[in-house]
Amino acid sequence: MKNFQIIFLKNNMKKIQISILSVAIISLAFSATSAFAISTTLGATVSATLPAGLSVKAQAALTTRIQTGQTRATQEIDRRVTVMNALLGKVAAMTRVSADEKTAISNTLNIQISAMSALKTKILADTDITTLKTDIKSITDSYRIFMLVVPQVNVIRTTDAMVETSQMLSAFGTKLQTRITAAQTAGNDVTSMSALLSDMTTKISDAQTQTAAAVALVAPLKPDQGDAATIAANKAAFATARADIKVARADLATARTDAGKIVKALKAMKTATSATTSAGNSAAPTTAQ
């Protein structure tokens, strides 16, 4: 039992605690990623087709506006592409979501990266200020990188971490069951510990159900392309997925608490058994010499 305490308390419970903390940290990325920024230096040159009849000064001003718009637009595109490339690496590192889910989200990211690249090429070739304004507006209105794709990946990353935590807790629960059975065989009352283990198992199962539901909701989402109905549907899906994740996080926290109580009870049982044994040995008669 002493080795049991050292192994479970110092190793398993610490790993589970760290894993649950990592889930909370990943969840913060829902709002934090959109603040990501990079610095891009461009030397864009434009040969603009300017409207006839403009003065030299007006022509120079319009050319500057086009160049400035192109520079800022390509910076925004590069910023989004950098974020998505980073997310591709994080998706590849996921180990608990299914291969189909990883493929689906990776394909979404690659499609968006290709679309951003094509849009950047078109913007740099724009010679008309009206066309340029339309293309620049489409960076946020049509592709929704920060409003859809980044949160989408972050939901799946969070569920991936939660599945890992639930599996750790489940494996720990199996070991606890072995200890509880041994304690019962030794004649101890394990009613409360069995109830805690049952609750722990239920919470783990529910957490897995909630995370699977969250992934199923967000994995198939596509950019809205400005369609109001799709915008509303995507928002509703994210709201539900985040609610599912919140429940799953609470489930895992409760399961960990249950595990801690079981370990504490087993430790107290060991202490009581050792005290009884020691008292029995001290009261035993000694052999006369």
Structural write-up:
The protein is mainly α. The chain has one domain (11-274). 81% of the residues lie in helices and 0% in strands. The chain has helices at residues 2-32, 56-93, 99-125, 129-141, 145-185, 191-218, 228-283. It is rod-shaped, with a radius of gyration of 30 Å. The model is unreliable at 25-48 and 283-289 (pLDDT under 50).
Order of helices and strands: HHHHHHH
Q: How far is the first residue's CA from the last residue's CA?
A: 36 Å
Q: What's the helical proportion of residues?
A: over 70%
Structural class based on helices, strands and sheet pairing: mainly alpha
Let me know the number of strands: 0
Number of domains: 1
**Mind telling me the C-alpha Rg?**
30 Å
General shape: rod-shaped
**How big a fraction of the residues is strand?**
under 5%
Number of helices: 7
Q: Give the averaged pLDDT, no decimals.
A: 80
Residue windows where pLDDT falls under 50 for at least 5 positions: 25-48, 283-289
**Largest sheet data:** none
Task: Using brief descriptors, characterize the structure shown.
single chain, rod-shaped, disordered C terminus, 7 helices, about 290 residues, mainly alpha
